[in-house]
Structure formats: structure tokens, C-alpha cells
Design brief:
The protein is an alpha/beta fold. The protein contains 20 helices and 18 strands. Bound molecules: ligand NAX and potassium ion. Ligand NAX binds near residues 100, 172, 179 and 206.
């Protein structure tokens, strides 16, 4: 499991170590310099002619760095002697340096790089800079200029003429969007980066890409996209959360001596254990707390793998209420997802013609009512409109009945009382009561926005996409349910924990993929039905596990190319075999 910390937790972990005189910053800076040297050496090794790794500016013919580097012997200008293959000397590095310790890390790393023969320029974005770091950098022979003196355009040109850019403007001490002048600098650099495409230098974010929401993964202003983030002591929540995670590149965690578990999970407190009715508003979401990411071993440990003593009923029966005569495909996809994940049995409830199609695709499915251990409700069923009434072949009636069993409103339901459920698509519009955590809502951003609007929030799809974890938590607090918010990076918010999974290739954004996910999760919930009802932390974990399996199955089915939803379901057994065998 990857654990990403909030900025508060990082600070709490640092305090006693700093008080004890641990050289945290020196360790961070050394590791940062090593990461840069590794990359520079690898690139130089791949290039005959040595160090000039990057294509350089060339486009406007300007000696781009002259103004930034005025008065300095340009040791790495074109025309210098060619170095050996793999030699890092003379590679050009631009440091973007902010006023705090993040800038300090960057300057100290810069000093290491200068000593290794790299050609390093530091742009100090603020009037203040980390004193010790600046002194070490200059003593090593590094060249520092002030942004106030050189202005933004020459810095952009310098960046374009560099091999590596280090973004050390702000780290976990920052709040909100980058303010001027750093904000203006990064806006200009990000635009140039976008325009330059592959000609842009290798960009390393120091601890975090400056300007992201450390705790909530928001991107409130300009941010320079990193190829790599070298982060210190612990992962930061914003590095795993969308949309910021998409700007962090490859994340490298460096051990600087934090204890394995330094602090409490602040978010796991009582804040979200509120009892709110359907129309009550949640309290303010603090947006702090840990975020987890499941890895294969975590999923294997949770998996309800069968033993020789099991039979189909102990393995778990999944009831699927999905599809209509107009949208029969969702029924096929959801039942296929459930069957291929290893359900003891899958029941299908719906219109007769849809049931026939389900059977043609999956003859294992039982098209009849009876006991189930978990429900999958809603794929391919239209939104419920209380004014118009249902036009869905009776599917809304069936979903309402199943929801009563999930919430315990019908305590003596024919299905046997409370049980977990996946609540997807149309079923998301049929929620009338507060839900338990073992009900897992699986909206995409647009559906979550509509659900939240129904609860009185002024939020649209774009707002949900801008702060997915915040809104998933808000929906969890308001409804009581576990919320699985689908996206390129999927977020799960449930009691005491948040998960984020980034397992699926971009090709997975295709019609029907979500129906398959609903089936996969339904089988997992059915396989551990009693546990899920007894332990409210289990549904979020199983939801994250389902997302991992679905994403890996999509990657298998895609093999780098387009993927059809049914093929994701077909790839699931191979993924499970790999997870359990590993
Ligand atoms: N405390 C320590 O000993 C260690 C800290 N480390 C580094 O220190 C960083 C945290 O350092 P600090 O707490 O000094 O804070 P930062 O360096 O992250 O930034 C704080 C500074 O940025 C300014 N700032 C805040 N919000 C801003 C905004 N929106 N726009 C522009 N400027 C803004 C503040 O005025 C303050 O001067 C970590 O991210 C990490 O890189 C590492 O060296 C590891 C050890
Ligand atoms: K940074």
C-alpha cells in the first residue's frame, strides 16, 4: 500500500527530527542531486557527442541565456569541447528557487551538481532565499540571479536552452495558487513548455510540483508539468490525487529518516461520522488527511479466494439489476464482469428480452430472483424522474426493492436483510434514504455533480473534476455511502479512508467499461458480504481493489491499443491469477 500524507502530518514528523539535529535537508538535497545526475547520465549515454542533451533553443536565433547569465563565462555554450558518452559535465541546469526550505533543498542540490561539473544557474524568485543553501550554492561556484533583475522572458529562454529544470519554488509550506512573482514565472514557463512539447527540458519537481494543492490534489493556478517528482520523507496526498497527480510525472520517494508511521491519520477522526438525513448538509471538509493507493499484494490479501470447502453459495451470489430493452448491453457487461471475477453465482433481474441476451452471452447466469449476497444496481437504467414516472421495463421498481434491503428499510426482505450493493448510473437517482458504508456509489464526475446538486450543493462537473477527493468525501458524508468516483485516476472516499487508483490506460475511457467495473465490485462485495456489513472500512478497500483489477484488466486487454469493454471483463481472470500467484 502506498500511503500519502497530509502537509500537517509531514510537519509533525519533521519537528522532532529537526529538533534532534537530523540533517533532513542535506539528505533531501543529496538525493535530489542524485536523481538529476542519474537522468543526465542516462541521456548523455544515449547520445554520441556527450553532454549537450537537449536540442537547445535555436528557433529564434537568440543567445537565449545571455541576459540571465550576464557577466558569466558560458561554460556550456555550443562549441565547447565534446565530452565522452555518458559524461554529465557541462549539462545545463536551471534552478527555480523559492523563499523557503523547498528552495533550500534546490540550492543545496544545485551545489552538488556544480561540484559534479554541471552548469547550474539559479533564479531566485523572491527577495528572500534560504541563506545556507544560497551560500553553499555560490561557494560551489553556482550562479544565482534574481528574478526581479532578469525578468521572466529571459528565464523562459534559459529554460528552453537547459537540459534540466528543477522546480523548487514552493513545497509543503505553500497554500493556494502560486502568488506573483512566482505565479507569473510559472505561467510563462508552463505556456512555453506546452508550446515546446518534446523540446522542453527534463523537469524535476522538488518535493511537489510547485502550486499544487498538497492535501487535496487541486490545481488552483499555473503549475509546471514535471517528468519526475522527487519527494522527501513521505508521499504527499496531492501527488496521488487528480488532477495534480497528472502533473507530477514519475514520483520518487526518498527516505530522509522519517519513521515508518509518524502521525495519526487526521482524517480518520470523527468528522465524517455524522448522522445526516437525505437533505442535511455535511460539515466543512477540511481536505486534510491521508490518501492510500492499493498495490497488487494488498488486493491479493483482500481477495475472497475459494477453498476446497466452498460451494457456489458460500462463494457469493451477485444479483444484477441492469439494462433495459433499449440499453441491453449494460446488462451483458455487468453480468460478464461479475462472472469473470469469480462469483459463485450471478442472478439477473430485468425484462425478459434482456435476460435472453444475457444468457446468450453468459449461459452461467441465472435469470431468476432468489437470495443474493450483494447487489449491482443501475447500469444501463435511465435516470428516475418522479414527475414522469419510470419508463424502464420495471427496472426502477426492482432497484427500489433491492435498495430497501441494502439500507435495511425492509428489515425482513425476502433477500434476507442488509447486504452490500454497487449503486451505479440510473440507481444513483433513486436514493431516498441515508445509506450505509457498504453501499458503494460509482458515479463519474457528471453523475456525482447531479447527486450533489440534489443535496443542495452548487457544483457542476468541472468543479468535481477540479477537486475530486473533496467532492467524493462530501458525497460520502452527505449520504453515508462509500463513494467511488470514476476517472482517469479514480478516487474512493469511505469511512476513515480515501483511496486513489491509477491503474487503467487512457483507452479505458470507453462506453461500457463502468458496467464491467460494477460487476467486478459486485462479485467482491458478494464474496465478503458478511464482513463488509460488519466492518465499515472494508467496502472502500474492496472498491479500491476492484478499481485496481479493472484497470489492470483494461491494460491487458488494451496491450497499448484500443479496448472494448467486454474484453476488459474477459481479461479479469488472468489479472486475478497473476495477483494471487504473485
Ligand atoms: N523542514 C525541513 O527540515 C525539511 C523541509 N524540506 C523541504 O521544505 C519544504 C517546506 O518548506 P517550507 O515550510 O519552508 O515552505 P516552502 O518552501 O514549501 O514554501 C514556503 C514559502 O513559500 C511562500 N508561499 C506560501 N504559499 C505561497 C504561494 N501560494 N505562492 C508563492 N509563495 C508562497 C511562503 O511565504 C514561504 O516563504 C518541503 O516541501 C521540502 O521541500 C526538506 O528539506 C526536508 C526537510
Ligand atoms: K516544488
Amino acid at each position: 500500500m502506498k500511503d500519502a500524507w497530509s502537509s500537517d502530518e509531514v510537519r509533525k514528523a519533521e519537528e522532532p527530527l529537526i529538533a534532534a539535529g537530523e540533517p533532513l535537508m542535506a539528505r533531501a538535497a543529496y538525493a535530489l542531486a542524485q536523481a538529476v545526475l542519474r537522468e543526465v547520465a542516462a541521456r548523455a549515454a544515449a547520445r554520441p557527442g556527450g553532454v549537450r542533451l537537449h536540442g537547445g533553443l535555436g528557433s529564434d536565433g537568440l543567445p537565449g541565456t545571455a541576459r540571465v547569465r550576464s557577466g558569466r563565462t558560458p561554460g556550456s555554450r555550443p562549441g565547447r569541447p565534446a565530452a565522452r558518452r555518458g559524461d554529465v559535465r557541462g549539462a545545463r541546469v536551471l534552478l527555480l528557487v523559492g523563499p523557503g526550505n523547498n528552495g533550500g533543498d534546490t540550492l543545496l542540490a544545485g551545489a552538488h551538481l556544480v561540484r559534479r561539473g554541471l552548469d547550474v544557474t539559479a533564479v531566485l524568485a523572491s527577495a528572500r532565499a534560504h541563506e545556507e543553501g544560497l551560500a553553499a550554492f555560490e561557494a560551489a561556484g553556482g550562479h544565482a540571479v534574481s528574478l526581479a533583475d532578469v525578468r521572466v522572458p529571459p528565464v523562459v529562454r534559459e529554460a528552453l536552452d537547459s537540459d534540466v529544470v528543477l522546480d523548487g519554488l514552493v513545497g509543503v509550506g505553500a497554500r493556494g495558487a502560486l502568488r506573483p512573482p512566482a505565479g507569473g514565472l510559472v505561467r510563462a514557463l508552463a505556456e512555453a513548455q506546452e508550446a515546446a512539447g518534446r523540446r522542453w527540458p527534463y523537469t524535476v519537481a522538488v518535493d511537489i510540483p510547485s502550486g499544487i494543492g498538497v492535501d487535496d490534489g487541486a490545481v488552483p493556478g499555473p503549475v509546471l508539468r514535471a517528468d519526475r517528482t522527487v519527494t522527501f520523507g513521505a508521499l504527499k496526498a496531492g501527488l496521488l490525487l487528480p488532477p495534480a497527480a497528472q502533473l507530477a510525472g514519475e514520483v520518487e520517494l526518498v527516505d530522509i529518516g522519517f519513521p515508518a508511521d509518524a502521525g495519526p491519520d487526521h482524517w480518520a477522526g470523527a468528522a465524517q461520522r455524522v448522522t445526516l438525513g437525505r437533505h442535511a448538509m455535511p460539515g466543512t471538509d477540511t481536505g486534510t488527511g491521508r490518501v492510500h493507493r492499493m498495490e497488487p499484494a494488498d488486493v491479493a490479501a483482500l481477495w475472497p479466494a475459494p477453498t476446497a470447502r466452498d460451494h457456489k453459495y458460500t462463494r457469493g451470489v451477485v444479483g444484477v439489476i441492469a439494462g433495459t430493452s433499449t440499453y441491453p448491453g449494460a446488462a451483458v457487461l455487468a453480468t460478464s464482469g461479475a462472472v469473470r471475477t469469480g462469483a459463485g453465482m450471478v442472478r439477473y433481474l430485468g425484462p425478459e428480452d434482456v435476460g435472453t441476451r444475457v444468457l446468450l452471452a453468459r449461459p452461467e447466469v441465472v435469470v431468476a430472483g432468489g437470495r443474493v449476497q450483494a447487489w449491482v444496481l443501475g447500469p444501463g437504467i435511465p435516470a428516475f424522474d418522479p414527475e414522469e414516472g419510470p419508463d424502464d421495463d420495471g427496472q426502477a421498481r426492482r432497484v427500489f426493492g433491492a435498495l430497501a434491503a441494502v439500507t435495511g428499510v425492509l428489515s425482513e426482505d425476502v433477500t434476507g436483510g442488509k447486504m452490500p450493493a454497487v449503486i451505479d448510473a440510473g440507481a444513483l437517482t433513486m436514493l431516498e434514504h441515508r445509506l450505509p458504508a457498504w453501499a458503494v456509489l460509482t458515479p463519474h464526475a457528471g453523475e456525482l455533480a447531479e447527486l450533489l446538486q440534489g443535496l443542495g450543493h452548487e457544483v457542476d462537473r468541472a468543479a468535481v473534476e477540479a477537486r475530486p477527493l473533496h467532492w467524493a468525501r462530501t458525497a460520502h458524508q452527505a449520504t453515508g455511502a462509500t463513494v467511488l468516483l470514476k476517472g482517469a485516476i479514480t478516487v474512493v472516499a469511505g469511512p476513515g479512508a480515501a483511496y486513489t487508483q491509477a491503474d487503467a490506460p487512457a483507452w479505458t475511457a470507453t462506453a461500457g467499461a463502468g458496467d464491467v467495473l460494477a460487476g467486478i465490485l459486485g462479485t467482491l462485495l458478494a464474496g465478503r458480504s458478511a464482513d463488509v456489513v460488519a466492518d465499515e472500512t472494508l467496502a472502500p478497500r474492496l472498491a479500491a481493489a476492484a478499481v485496481l483489477v479493472h484497470g489492470r484488466a483494461a491494460a491487458r486487454a488494451s496491450a497499448g491499443g484500443p479496448v472494448a469493454a467486454l474484453e476488459i471483463a474477459h481479461a479479469v481472470p488472468g489479472v486475478i491469477a497473476e495477483l494471487l500467484g504473485g
